[in-house]
Design goal:
By secondary structure, the chain is of the alpha+beta class. Helix content is 49%, strand content 25%. It is built from three helices and five strands, in the order ββαααβββ. A hairpin with a 2-residue loop joins β4 and β5. α2 packs antiparallel against α3. The longest helix is centred in the middle third of the chain and has 48 residues. The N and C termini lie far apart (107 Å).
Length: 140
Amino acid sequence: MPRGNAQQTIRGAKCRRSKPAHQNVHRRHLERGSGSVLAVAIIGATVSIAVALCLVLAAHAANTRAQVAADAAALAAADTASGRIPGDACGRAAAIAAEHGATLNGCDAGRTETFVTVSLDFGWITLTASSRAGLPDSVP
């Protein structure tokens, strides 16, 4: 078989002639450092996901805090409106909401039930929660 042919026959099987040594060295030189780039990309993606997860969890915690503030303010206003605690029902609800770091937005206090709406700032987002306290609906 002529020497310039890319394939040789050895005992009836075809095999490819290996590339010259200088071509393999050149290819390895081009791929050098690609593992570092991949590692940096994986670390960057992991850190991005962790930061996003922390922000979502912090927003959930702030939303829960706003709901707790609304519940506590509604209960305090209901106690005051029913006469168990002397004072102004909505004033008491505002004080309880402030203790929880929230602002009272709305208060409708009646003798049998109270509706309260509070807001809480979380960064540039304002979270709003509302709550009702009073007698069950089945009681006339």
